[in-house]
Amino acid sequence: MNWASVLAIAATMLLSSRLPAQNAQVGIVLPARTQLASEPPAVRSSSLITDGATLDLLRNGFPARLHYTMERWTTGGWFDGIAAEAQWDVVVRYDALGKAFHVYRVARGRTSLLGVFATVAEADAALGAPFQAPIAPPKPGQRGYYSLVLDIEALSLTELDELEQWLRGDLKPAVRGSKNAGTAVGRGVRTIVVRLLGGEKRRYEARSPTFRP
Amino acid sequence: MRIFRLLAPLLAIVAHSVAAVAQSAPQDTTIDLGLILGQDVSGGLSISSGKTYNRVEGLPILFGPTYQGDAGNGRLSISALGIIRSSDDFHWDSGNLGHRLSADLRFGRLQGFAVGAESFDVVSKIESWQLNEPDGGLAAFFLKRDYFDFFGSHGARAHVSAFRGNTTVTFGLSDVRWSSRSERKVYTLFRGSESWRENPSINDGRAHVVDLSLRVDTRNSVVDPSDGWFLTAQYEHGSGDFETTGTSIVPSLPDGRAGLAYGRSFVDLRRYNRISQRRRLHARLVLGGWLHGDDLPYQRRFSVGGIGTLPGFDFRRTGIGTDAGQCGSEATVSTARPAECERVALVQVEYRQELVSELIDMFNRNGLRVRGAAFRVKPDVVAFADAGRGWLVGPRAGTLRYGSRSVPGFDTFRTDVGLGIDLGIAGLYVAKAVSEPKEPANFFIRLRNRF
After folding, report:
1. Do residue B17 and residue A109 have CB atoms under 8 angstroms apart?
2. What residues pair up with B427 in beta bridges, in sequence order?
3. B174 close to B209: Cβ distance less than 8 angstroms
4. Do B372 and A52 count as a contact with CB atoms less than 8 A apart?
5. Is B284 within 8 Å of B451 (Cβ atoms)?
6. Residue A61 contacts B where some CB pair is shorter than 8 Å
7. Contact call for A14 and B370, based on CB within 8 A
8. What CATH number corresponds to the domain at position B390?
9. pTM above 0.90, yes or no
10. What is the C-alpha separation between A48 and A34, in angstroms, rounded?
11. Is residue B68 part of a domain?
12. Where are the domains of chain A?
């Protein structure tokens, strides 16, 4: 690969910036020291669905899925090992008729409605409130740490959906003559780079400090 | 038609990224989210890419009806997909048309068995194990560098598999016609005036293939694992009469063809370890090759070299002593430098150290923004070492051919070391050959982890 090509790709990535995003955060909150062996940690977050791209997708009928994977790792040997794992989901859906955001949590085989909210900020606050992870805590004396991975993606985004979106959003005006075809293709190329680098799927990671209950 | 030319590469990349997302999407842990969302999951009309972009097909587009539903105690999946390829401006000819029809019935969720059958007319990679997509397709689309060779595969296969947890065993029977395919006119973003690397000839013919495979996958993540095993082990017995033109296989039949019955195996074993919160050590061992019977036809052979295996060596590099990369022998006929090795061994070791700094945290607060999408970086410094080679099987001849019970000495392996920085969205690496000190260092980009 020559450097011109690398620079071209890098330049494509850097094109078109918008307003800075709010500071999305995900964190693990350990229980009190005396309860490390009896209580699981909590997860809390903020500004996960309030950025422009996610909000656009939500308002266009694509529910957002937040998939949480928490692992409890033990340390002490040559390699760390996974001692326990838990997964759960939060789904946010926008009801265009009711103009409200519905937030669900799916954990331990049960689905619960966290609420129906008029604004995305309220929905974000509800899904970000501290939630006790459904994971087994360590035994007393077992040294380790928690690791959390959160994947956020738009549901139902099949390739056909992608194509339809692109045709509707970028290409169709160009075909009708109301938009420059070169611009449409240029935007298409930028879109490719975004998707290729995983821009449509966001991943957040958090780890607790190492502790021994 | 012009708009299709523009659409094709875009679709390719969309397909790649969506495929990667789909591949990395964790399984629903509790109930089907479709129940909440009221989604129709029974199927319908589907359009998708072949998850590849290459000099033989361009972008293959699969379209047609699909169905998923319950059948008794089982889960039935049926698809009838036609294939049209974008090469030569979507020209309507047999080389640009194909199909894949399949039906699978699966019983059990965490353990059970499955049966299925498929009919196909597709273009297959000769060594798909070397490099993951989308890296391969993107190198072709952006840079006109195609790191695979291809052949046509037209036939039918029936299979039965048993699975339990992370382990799956599959037994299959195929009747297939393999055919050589040539490179065609395929659009690329850069180097449009350059020619594609020649796609080599294979041993054309009809084969009956019996295959048995084992897959064990205990990785905690498909895209970025830090713990677990990944094992793929395959055995294949094939027999048939094959053309020999353009290959070094000696005709054994009066009509100039060769009757071949061969046994072949392939093992890819990987271990992912976390040493501490921010350090990881991964290793991979690949062994493949001839087991018994006649020579392997060219489409079932092996090679090493290039960014997927030994990045310190250029892909299809020759002229540096014994050709331990492709095993081009004195009898090599083709100028396309095909993979000719009958056996191959490859060891890869990788150490990753996560970088942490306030500067990175500050950068991640706003992220790198492209079209409104924010990218967060999670930089890892990566150090790696690779060793591998291929060889022929037969009477000992120098350091290229070894007896069937012999293994070349490690001092004959091609080795390299390298460093890189993986930002999480892409990695930039440099690799330097060790066993051939005069080889210049190679710089390369990978979007996914090396293995």
Report:
1. no
2. B422, B446
3. yes
4. yes
5. yes
6. no
7. yes
8. 2.40.160.50
9. no
10. 31
11. yes
12. 20-156+201-207
